[in-house]
Amino acid sequence: MASVKLNFEIPSKLKTWSLALIAIGVLAIVAGFLTKGRGTEAQQAEFIGTLMYNTIFWTLVCNAAMFFVCVTTLAMGGWQVSFKRIPEAISTLVPVFGSITLAILLFVVFTDKHHIYHWLDSAAVAKDEVLKGKSGFLNVRFFAIWSILAVGLWSLLGWRMRQLSNEADVEAMTKEVGASFILRNTVRASMFLVWFALTVGSTIPWLWLMSIDAHWYSTMYSWYTFASSFVSGMSLIALWVVYMKNKGYLEYTTEEQLHDIGKFMFAFSIFWTYLWFSQFMLIWYSNQPEETIYFKNRFQGEYRGIFFLNLIINFVCPILILMKRGAKRNYSLITFMAVLIIFGHWVDFYQMVMGSVRPESSSLGWLDFGVLCFFVGVMIHFVAKALASKPLISKYHPFLKESIIHHT
Amino acid sequence: MAKKKFVVASFDDEDVLFPAVKKARTAGYKIQDVYTPFAVHGLDHALGMRETSLHTAGFIYGITGTTTALSCITWIFTKDWPLDIGGKPHFALPAWIPIIFELTVLFAAVGMVLTFCYLCQLAPFVKKHHFHPRATDDLFVMVIECNDKTNVDDLVGFMKGTGAVEVDVQVAEEGWWLGRYDKDEVLFEHKTVAA
């Protein structure tokens, strides 16, 4: 225990990089606002759409980190305890990115940007039987309240989990104290997960993303979005674990833990593909115009390249590269795959939003990468800050030993 | 049918077994195998066994299944008997993916089960010598192979020293054979030397 480094000092290089990325991002956003944000309605929609898919993607990815903490807690997992502070630190970003998301989405619905959400156009809805039928769900009031509730409760319930985690830093626990600590963890984790199921697992992707194509629907959509964000979340955790190991922290985390994180990345890449394919194949097979319209832009239109790129990055690469045991225990390969998977699912979110908002052009341009820089910079900055604010290992956690001796 | 001499040491505790395995290996004895009532975590590492190639075999079986399904359906639907089904193209790849997937799984699963049985020398009508019936119940049975130079008495004493509850010497068929237990095992019983 004596040799374990508990306090993370943020390297100045990391700080510089994160601030530089944020600066590039802010510049890109300002430039985007000046060139597109004040232009025609289509240009505005493009600008807002770019911000939207980035912020929604990063909110859901960071929220997936808390999902990981809660799921492993509920499953009485012990292996993740040695690096548990990393997903916890990533989840501190939910309020940050959540507020950005809320600001953009509420701006969209309250200023009536029906170029993005067609159901905001009340004149069109009045003439449209399908949208009239959906108006109980797709209306401004419900959208606003449910979105605020979602982000608020993710932040609050996640914060409660992190608060409870602090107790494991104070002093050694007796058996009774430890048991009650685990029980309270379980209760708080289940509260988060129930809310997670009601939001990320169902309604939030419908509201935020699927309603861009107001007439279209898919029952796979929420799970598809969730799988996308969870596999990226696991990749993000893997990246931070590798980074911290490289800096000489997290002594108790070995390639055994990395192997299990790699298994999650592998398995959920396959799960994502399963949902992607099921959604595509059923629509392709039944061939009904009101359903195929979603894939018309993507499969046959401008987005054909992105459509297949998506499948190659997010399915073919993980299944072939991560299949072997050695690959999941190799720090360089895991780092490479994690970056690739996060990029791949960012592209996935790109085509989910922009494929409908701007079907006529599919080029990923400076604005997309600029906004991505902003979010990556903010993510690095705040995660590093959160890691530095707490001991890196919850050294009195009852399951810590299980994590140290873990082997797969 | 190559018969060999084995020293069979039985342990009733995992915590005794692990140090015993280590001691026997450092002393240079060749452990044929350790038979346990359940899967013991880390025992393969302690025995210094190499990583199994079963999953590589599984991958190859899977790929074979994929290829079989894809080429078979493609040939049938595009060359042999093209049918117009719901206006879909003859080469209707998305519709075939489930079948290709199923055949991949089927080939991989069946192939791996058969390979696993072969590696463990299990098959219908095939017999294999059991070193200790309680290996399926509550004893961890370590089997050490003897050669011409092995001093059996020394080895028996050595194994007792590592904490074995039972040690005996058996001359037994090493591999599998086609035949009957009642006939063949009688032979072994005569040759079994009590320690």
Characteristic key phrases:
heterodimer; A: 408 residues; mainly alpha; 16 helices; 75% helix; B: 195 residues; alpha+beta; 2 domains; two-stranded antiparallel sheet; 6 strands; elongated; disordered C terminus
What does this structure look like?
The complex is a heterodimer of chains A (408) and B (195). Helix content of chain A is 75%, strand content 0%. Chain A is mainly alpha-helical and 408 residues long. Chain A has one domain. The longest helix of chain A has 34 residues. The model of chain A has no long low-confidence stretch (mean pLDDT 93). With 195 residues, chain B is of the alpha+beta class. Chain B has two domains: 109 residues, Alpha-Beta Plaits (2-Layer Sandwich); 66 residues, no CATH class. Chain B is built from six helices and six strands. In chain B, the strands form two sheets. Chain B has a four-stranded antiparallel beta sheet with strand order 2-4-1-5. A two-stranded antiparallel ribbon of chain B has the order 3-6. The longest helix of chain B has 27 residues. The C terminus of chain B is likely disordered. Chains A and B meet through helix 10 of A and helix 4 of B.
- Biggest sheet details of chain B: 4 strands, antiparallel
Mean pLDDT of chain A: 93
Structural class of chain A: mainly alpha
Order of helices and strands of chain B: EHEHHHEEHEEH
Major sheet details of chain A: none
N-end to C-end Cα span of chain B? 25 Å
Structural class of chain B, by secondary structure, is alpha+beta
User: Can you tell me the overall shape of chain A?
Assistant: globular
Radius of gyration of chain A: 22 Å
Q: Tell me which CATH architecture of the largest domain in chain B applies here.
A: 2-Layer Sandwich
- Indicate the percent of residues in helices of chain A: over 70%
Q: Kindly state the number of beta strands of chain A.
A: 0
Topology at a glance:
The complex is a heterodimer of chains A (408) and B (195).
Chain A lengths: L11 H26 L3 H34 L10 H7 L1 H18 L11 H5 L2 H6 L5 H27 L8 H34 L12 H26 L8 H32 L2 H12 L3 H18 L3 H4 L2 H27 L8 H23 L11 H5 L4
Helix pairs in contact in A: 1-2, 1-15, 2-3, 2-4, 2-8, 2-9, 2-14, 2-15, 3-15, 4-7, 7-8, 8-9, 9-10, 9-14, 10-12, 10-14, 11-12, 12-14
Chain B lengths: L2 E9 L2 H13 L3 E6 L7 H4 L7 H27 L12 H27 L6 E3 L11 E6 L6 H10 L4 E8 L2 E3 L2 H11 L4
Antiparallel strand pairs in B: 1-4, 1-5, 2-4, 3-6
Helix pairs in contact in B: 3-4
